[in-house]
Each structure stands twice: as C-alpha cells, then as structure tokens.
Records
---
Amino acid sequence: MLLAQISDLHVRPEGELYKGVVDSNAMCAAAIEHLNGLDPRPDLVLITGDLVDEGQEAEYESLRSLLARLKPPCLLMPGNHDDRDALARWFPEHAYLPARGPKHFLIEGHAVRLVALDTTVPAQHHGDIDDAGLRWLDGALRATRGVPTIVMMHHPPIASGIPYLDKYMCRRPERIAAVIARFEHVERVLCGHVHRPIQQRWAGTLVCCSPSTATQIALCLRPHAPPASFSEPPACLLHWWRGGVMLTHTSYIGRFAGPYPFA
C-alpha cells in the first residue's frame, strides 16, 4: 500500500496570495499534478491540516475546486488555520468527519489502519488533547490492535529545535505518548504544522513531519532565531507499506534538471 502525505496547503481565496508573497493555490495545484503523475499512483492521499489559511468560506471553496482534480482518494483533517466545522460542512461526502466538535476519525479496510487525532484548539495556534480525546485515541488503538496503524496529528508532539515553532507544538505530549506507547502496532505518527521534514523516535514509534506544499520554515536552531520562511522546493512524503515494513520517502514537487546517467 502506498500512502502519500501532503500538508499545510494554506489555500487562499481565488486570486489572493499566501502572506501576500506566494501563490499557495498554484502550489497546491502543482502538488496535485505531482501526485496524479506518480507511478505507481498512491492508493490514498493523507492531508494533515492547515488546508486553508484563515478558515474562510471562500478558501474552502477554492480548496474544493483544487481537490476535485486529485485522482487518488484523500483524507482530510484540520490544522490550526482551519475552521473544523466549516471543513466538515464544505466536504459532506467525507462522512468520516464528525459534523461538530473534534475531527477524530478511524479508517479501516486497508492494509494499514488510519487513526486521525484532532489536536486543534479553536482560536489558538498551539495543539492539545483533552481527556475525552485521549480516551478516544486509546479506544481506536485497541480496535486496531494486531493491524499496522498510522496515527495522524496536525501538531507534532516533539520539539523541532526551532524556537518560535516550538511555542506552537502539541502541548502535554507526554499524555499522548503514554497512550501510544502501550500499542506496538503504531508504525508512524504523521504530522504537519512545522513546514519541514522532521523525524524523531517517540513513544516507541517514529514521528514524521511533512514539508508544506507552500513555503518552508527556515531551518535555524539558534535559541533566539527570528521567525522566517523560504520558498524552498515543496515536497510530499510517500509512506510505502510492503512486506510488513513501512518505508518513507521524500518526493520533491516541481520540475528539475535530469534525468542524468546513474554513474
């Protein structure tokens, strides 16, 4: 099974730029073209939050138009820039999304089970999970026990080392870690939010953060690094489940010189 992950699309109303600088809608369209052209084509596309930039109705209208071009099926989950109820309203055919409240969901019927944990806090940019969310996660992982499972969260439960980002990570991550660590069948925890490819062992599994399809956060690990982004090449992650093992690749979006002879 081949799973593609894109994140942090930051779709804007038609004709408006992301942060007044980049055409995030055109970059989202390029990411969709990239996914459609992959060979083999992904079985499923996971979109791990910040689908739009300001939670506006016009942004979800743009997103719906863009995703209509995506050929593989996709799963949607909110990030801190989303309005989670508007998301469910604009995509009623995605019936796995609860109409109201946190957008936790469990998808079965594939070689890998998919558990989405909604870490958004309305009107805030950091992440968190309440006691009810922890109980839901425990129940979902018990239900998938014995089957390889991916947990998806928008906010990473780990510190990136980029100081201004880490103010907005998922708070109280030890509570989530205590649940996940009880289950050996969790193959990955997939996150977005940080606009960078980041990996770390955590809670007995591997956290993988996806790059953005728009701008990338500056990689500066100094304690007082100023906030900054760059128009670095966008990318997606490809998670390939084969032979009982999950392999993750970074796939860059765009047209680059090549191919050249191997040696």
---
Amino acid sequence: MNQELLTKICNDINSCPNWRSGSLKCGRDETAIPKTVEIKDTQKILLITRDPSNQANKLDDVTSFENSFFMDKVLPILFADYETEKAKKDMKYFEDFREKFLSLFYWTHYQKCFPGKREGAHKQPRKKCATRYLKTEIEAFDPEIIICIGAKAVDHVIKEAVERVKGEKLLQTISKNGNNHVTYSGKKIPFIALTHPSGSNNGAKNNPSYRYEETIKLIREKVREFE
C-alpha cells in the first residue's frame, strides 16, 4: 500500500470540486457528501460497492451502528461468525466486528456520494467518480484481493484492468469466481464479484446463475485467510 498516495486520493475525494461548488452534474444527490473510510496499514482487502447508502449519507459515516446496510448486509457477507441480531442488541459486539472490518478492509465506492432517489427508487450511480478515482485507488492500495459488489462496480473494474476480455459482464465474471483475477500495475489480483445484496435485487439473488449464496461462502473463506 502506498499510504501517502491513498491518503491524498481520499482527501481529493472529500474535497471534490463538484461537492464544493454544489454541482449535481456528477449524479450526486443535493444533500450528498463524499464518503471515505479510515486507512490502516493492516488493510489487505479492497471492498468496492456501488455507492454510500441514504442512511450513510445522513449519518456521514458508512460504518456506523445506525447504518443498516453496513450492519445487515456488508458484515454478514464478509464474516461467517457475525450475527446481525446479536449486533443490533450489543454495541460492543458490533464494535468488535467493525474494528475487525477496518483492520482488514479498505472500502470504497463506485460513486462516492449518495445518488438520491427518484419516485421512491434508488437512482443509479454515474461513472464520473469511478472514472476520476477508482483506478488510482486500486493502484495506490495494491490489494491482495478485490471483492466487488454490484454490476456497476464490477463492470468498471473489469474495463479498467489489463488483460481482460472486452465486453465481459457481471454474470460472466461471477461464473469465474474462485478462479478469477484482474491485473493492475502488472499485478494479478484475485477478484470476486457479487450481485448487489439489496432487497430490490432479489430477482438476481434468487437466480442460480448469480451464485449468490455460493459466492458469499467463497468470500467468507477468503476473508478468513487474512484474519
């Protein structure tokens, strides 16, 4: 990890010119603030998700106790021994897993700000943040493995990588889970793709082709190797 460069990138994200100027051309919600997480030299795994949730935006924190996406979706995907209901009742239990998460994972997003809602539905993120920041984040972090959640993030990481088949999509990538990699800065990095865990994506999650539960099992096995 080039911690100095990664810190600079995060500072650039947090002072993004679109946010400073109030511009919405990048696709962010008018209330949205860029989100980054703490950088630690123990982190080895890169987690990339679609965008910060509406809750994370309101809380100004993606790993807080009150952020249900982190508590109910992210942590159960990553840690086999994590119990959501216990975490909801026991702050210390949650904080122990939060600290374990932060010691292992650098977490970033395809779009760095919450994109907002339209007619009650979550707006799809735009690629401007990913185009500006994501490749340099990957190269600066130099991960041992990348876990990528959601089609937008998966497709972009594949397109930016070296030695990938042009036009490969989420399902094709998922089919290679367990024997898959992307190449950045000459380094082959193990790569796992997962369809998005949101309730609105139940159609894909329940489709055997997306290997949802099988992929979660694989992710947990890989994470355990770094604990």
